[in-house]
C-alpha cells in the first residue's frame, strides 16, 4: 500500500518524524486530550495523521451520520408513499430499499480535482446520489418501521437491533422480544420502560439489571426476582424499597400499587429517581479481558472504549462487537474489522479509513454504503468494484496516481484523517442517532455545523388534548387507536398502535401520556455517557476510567468494591490523607 502513494507517504512520514507524546486541544469541544506513545504507534500502523478532536467528539460526529429515533412518511416523485429515516426538510434523494440495492450507482461517476477542497466535492456528489429511504434488513418480516434492525419480526419503531420479535419502541437491543419502550436490552422478554438490562423477564421501569424476573422500579440488581424499588441487590427475593419482607408481606404491598393508573406510575417514577441517584454505581464492567480500560468490555486484550467484545488493540470507540476487531482506532457500531480508522457501522472490513457502512471492503477511504469493494476513494453505493474515485472507474496505475495526489493535497489542507463534517450529514442532528448518545440543543448543534428539524407540522396537527386519555387502563377502549393526542411536553401529536395497546393490557400497565420520542429521551437520560472520565474509586481509591462523570454525586466504585455491595457488604469509606 505505501509504495503506491509515495508523495503522500513522504508527507505523512515527515509529520511522524516530529510527532511526540503531547497534549492537544480539541478543535470541536475545547477540551484537552493526550496523544500517547501508544497512539503514535497506532497512527503509524494505520497511516493517518494525529486527530484534531477527542475520541468521544469524533464518535459524536460519526453518529450524526446514522439515522436516529425518528421516522417520517415521505412521498416519492412517482407518488408512492414510503417510511423514511430522512425528515421532510432533508434534500436527500430517496428510493425504496429493495430498489436501492438493485440500482447501478456508477451512474453518479464524476471527475475529481485534487486542488479543490475534498469535502466540497463530496457535497456535490452526495447531493446527487440516491439513498435508501430506510436502512433495514430486507428479510425482516412485518417491520416497516425498523431502522438498522436485522432479523426483525413484527417490530414497530425499532432502531439498531438484532434478533428482535414483537417489539415496539426500542433501540440498541439484541435478542429481545415481547417488549415495549426499551433501550439497550440483551436477551430479554416481556419488559417495559427499562434500560441496560440483560437476561431478564418481566422487568419494568428498571435500569442495569441482570438475570432478574418480576422486578420493577429497580437499579443494579442481579439474580433477583419479585423485587420492587430496590437498588444493588443480588440473589434476593421479596424485597421492597430495599427492605427484606416475607412473601406474604411483599405480595400485599405490591397488590396495593395500581400500575394500571398513570398517576400511580408517574408518582413511583418520581419517587425512585432520587434513590437511584444516591445508590452505589459500578465504575465499569470488564470481563475476561487483559490490559483493558473502559466499560462493557468482554474477551478482549489491549483495548480502551465502550462496548468492545472479542477485540485486540482497539482503542477510542463505542461498539466493536460480534467477531470484534483488531488494530482499530476511533470506531462506532462495527463488527469484524481490522486495521481500520475513524469508521462507523461497518462489517468485515480491512484497512478502511473515514468510512460509513462500507461492508466486506478492503482499502476503502472516505466512502459511504459500499459493499465488497477494494481500493476505492470518495465513492458512494458501489458494489464489487475496484479502483474507483468519486464512482468513476480508473485503470490501476491511474487510480494510484490520482489517489496519491488527492491524499497529499488533503493532508496539506488539514482534511485527511478527519471524518465528514456535520454539514454533510443527510440527517438533522435531532433526527440522527447522535441525539440519543450525545444530546444537544438546537443552538449547540447548529454551532458545530449540524442541521436541526423543528417538527412544526406535528405540532400543528389536529389532535385531542391529553386530558381526553383516561388515566386508568380499564377505562381505555379500542377507540383510542383512532385518536391522536397532543403531547403536553413536546406539543407533537401522537397515537397508539395495536401491539402497544395489547401489551399494556396483558401487563396491566397504564398507557403513557407523552409522545414516544419524549419517553425515549427519558430513557436515554438514564444511559451513562458514551465517553470515559478519569476517576478514583470512592472506596479503595484505585484509579479507573468510567462513564460516571464528575456530575455523578453517588459513590462510584471499582468492579471489586462494587461486588461487595452486591452481596450486602458496605465498602470501606475512602480515606483522604
Can you lay out the helices and strands and say which pair or pack?
Layout: H1 6-18, E1 22-25, E2 32-35, H2 37-46, H3 55-63, E3 72-75, E4 81-84, E5 93-95, H4 97-102, H5 118-128, E6 130-132, E7 145-147, E8 153-159, E9 165-171, E10 177-183, E11 192-195, E12 201-204, E13 213-216, E14 225-228, E15 237-240, E16 243-244, H6 247-255, H7 262-278, E17 281-282, E18 286-287, E19 290-298, E20 301-309, E21 312-338, E22 341-344, E23 347-350, E24 362-365, E25 374-377, E26 386-389, E27 392-393, H8 396-413, H9 434-437, H10 442-447, H11 456-460, E28 464-465, E29 485-486, E30 493-494, H12 498-507, H13 516-526, E31 533-536, E32 543-546, E33 556-557, H14 559-566
Parallel strand pairs: 5-6, 7-8, 8-9, 9-10, 10-11, 12-13, 13-14, 14-15, 17-33, 18-19, 19-20, 20-21, 21-22, 21-23, 24-25, 25-26, 28-29
Antiparallel strand pairs: 1-2, 3-4, 15-16, 26-27, 29-30, 31-32
Helix pairs in contact: 1-8
Describe what you observe in this structure.
The protein is an alpha/beta fold. The protein has a domain at about 535-555. The chain is built from 14 helices and 33 strands. The strands form ten sheets. Strands 18, 19, 20, 21, 22 and 23 form a six-stranded parallel sheet that branches. Strand 26 (about 385-390) and strand 27 (about 390-395) form a beta hairpin. Helix 1 packs parallel to helix 8. The protein is globular, with a radius of gyration of 25 Å. The mean pLDDT is about 95.
